Amino acid sequence: MIDTILEITNLGNATQIQYILDLLKKDSFTIDGLKIACLSNHYDFVHSFKGIMLLLEWLRIIQINNNFASLNRSIEFVKDGHISNQFFLLLFGQLLKDNVLSAFLNQFNVSYDDKEELIVINNDLIDFKFSQFRNILINLNFFIPDKLVKNQFIVNKDYKKLFLGIIIPLIESSSHRKMTLEKLKKQQDIQGQIGKDMEEFILGYEKNRLKGHINIDNIRIISTDNVNAGYDIQSYQDIHSIIINRFIEVKSFSDNESFYWSKNEIDISKIKEDQYYLYLVDRDGMKKKDYEPIVIQNPYINILLNEEEWDQRVENYYFQLKVNKIQNAEDNEDK
Questions:
Q1: How many Å apart are CA 174 and CA 100, to the nearest integer?
Q2: Model pTM?
Q3: Coil, strand or helix at 107
Q4: What spatial distance separates the first Cα and last Cα of the chain, rounded to whole Å?
Q5: Contact, 5 vs 50, CB < 8 A?
Q6: Given this model, what pLDDT does residue 198 score?
Q7: Cα torsion at 30, 34, 35, 38 (round to 10°)?
Q8: What is the CATH architecture assignment of 1-75?
Q9: What pLDDT was estimated at residue 88?
Q10: Cβ distance 266 to 243 under 8 Å?
């Protein structure tokens, strides 16, 4: 069931979940009857009803048989004005059972601010495919947006003891499970396919932008032939250009405009200047009709050197022993 839930974008909020549980405490419902009752309460259920039902069934809080929904276990969803620890234990416990907990939260996106005594979640490093779980934790006030740091969350202090004492050990337990070569290859294949899909989308976008161009077939993806080119697509600035003069690097994001940019891509962008473009594609937004990507010309100037609008973080360093150190080591050996 986890694969089905990962395809859902909206798992509801506290009020909606509580409303469904209150209805089911009174009686069992057909799925259609329950949906009608929810929609009559608030139209927003049209976006979240399916996700909430999948979530509650996945957590075994409800059971669905022959199109009838009923409570499967007694749970105190809200306690003392807050979502109960019991619910979050079910949620994180099920993520562990389905072997996805450490892919969602891990040593890369969870840290501790000892000065403020806060548990910090870096949203930039949460895999986009877990955005529905991140969002439900925000909606249930488990994650609270950091008021000082953009795109960062704080674990609600009401759940700090639960997170440190129980959730962290669950995450550690999950991360210790070995990833097989087959799983690693599958993950790489998925990421590779996403990249190809984004490039094909932009290729279509460019051909539509330059519809009627005399050399339309020369607009093409070149990254498959030359992985070191520093860009993905060659194109033209406008309908009047007949020599390739637009070099496009395609990046995708979910929820916020963020991406990784390699040194080679940066070097090429510096050389190409105004002929180099970054096309940022919202993986969710691209499904909408008439969606257009974010187009940034000369990103070397407008992103890399634009610290007022873009945050940047170094995640890899290259080290090489200095020549004089190598020579000293050789001289010592000779002695």
A1: 8
A2: 0.54
A3: coil
A4: 68
A5: no
A6: 92
A7: 180
A8: Orthogonal Bundle (1.10)
A9: 94
A10: no
Residue 182: pLDDT above 70? no
pLDDT band (50, 70, 90) for residue 184: low
Question: What is the rounded CA–CA span in Å between residue 283 and residue 57?
Answer: 28
Helix axes 168-175, 85-97, angle to 10 degrees: 0
In this model, does residue 57 exceed pLDDT 90? Answer: yes
The first and second tokens of residue 75, run together, are: 């749970």
C-alpha distance from residue 130 to each of 61, 133, 134, 191 (Å): 21, 5, 6, 14
**Each residue's pLDDT tens digit, 146-166:** 988 888 999 999 999 999 999
Indicate whether 178 pLDDT > 70. no
Q: At what angle do helices 85-97 and 131-139 cross, to 10 degrees?
A: 170
Closest CA to 88 of 101, 71, 70, 106: 101
Query: Domain coordinates of the chain in residue numbers?
Result: 1-75, 94-177, 184-304
- How far apart are the C-alpha atoms of 280 and 283, rounded to whole Å? 9
